[in-house]
């Protein structure tokens, strides 16, 4: 029992909305939704991935409301229920995260090669290393030593660009 997680507020709200709109259950049978001791028996998901998926779902729903065209998610006969294709959404989410990571890693290299002052280059290295370490800490379940090693390795790679680069003037 102690290993189960507390359900996400969004999941409880979705279930509550469905029950209120469909009226399939008696009020006494839905009383458990207002209790504070609910447990989630589902497998825990990759939290950053789930957050980006949620963002993409909201974007799709926003586009649906603007263009009034129902996306190809008609798995339910209820017009108020949207069930997204999980594999497609996961692929899009992973692609988006991959592009963000590539930008986080390569933009500092471009800046270091474009700037001629060593002090600015060193500042870029400090800021870029901090961003990479924060990204590791927030988006993964990384151990402290792995975070230190990853940050030090990235900073070392960036330092290689400092003496050998010449600014394109």
From TrEMBL:
Residues 4-159 form the DUF6594 domain. Keywords: Membrane, Transmembrane, Transmembrane helix. It holds the Pfam family DUF6594. The chain crosses the membrane at residues 96-116, 122-140, 147-168. PANTHER family: DUF6594 DOMAIN-CONTAINING PROTEIN, DUF6594 DOMAIN-CONTAINING PROTEIN-RELATED. This is DUF6594 domain-containing protein.
């Amino acid at each position: 029992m102690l290993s189960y997680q507390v359900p996400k507020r969004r999941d409880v709200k979705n279930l509550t909305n469905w029950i209120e709109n469909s009226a399939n259950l008696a009020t006494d049978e839905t009383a458990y939704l207002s209790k504070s001791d609910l447990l989630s028996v589902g497998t825990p998901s990759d939290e950053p991935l789930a957050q980006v998926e949620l963002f993409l779902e909201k974007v799709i729903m926003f586009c649906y409301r603007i263009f009034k065209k129902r996306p190809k998610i008609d798995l339910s006969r209820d017009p108020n229920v949207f069930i997204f294709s999980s594999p497609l959404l996961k692929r899009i989410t992973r692609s988006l995260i991959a592009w963000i990571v590539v930008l986080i890693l390569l933009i500092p290299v471009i800046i270091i090669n474009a700037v001629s002052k060593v002090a600015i280059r060193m500042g870029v290295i400090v800021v870029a290393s901090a961003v990479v370490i924060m990204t590791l800490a927030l988006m993964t379940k990384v151990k402290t030593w792995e975070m230190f090693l990853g940050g030090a390795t990235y900073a070392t790679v960036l330092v290689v660009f400092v003496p050998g680069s010449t600014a394109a003037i």
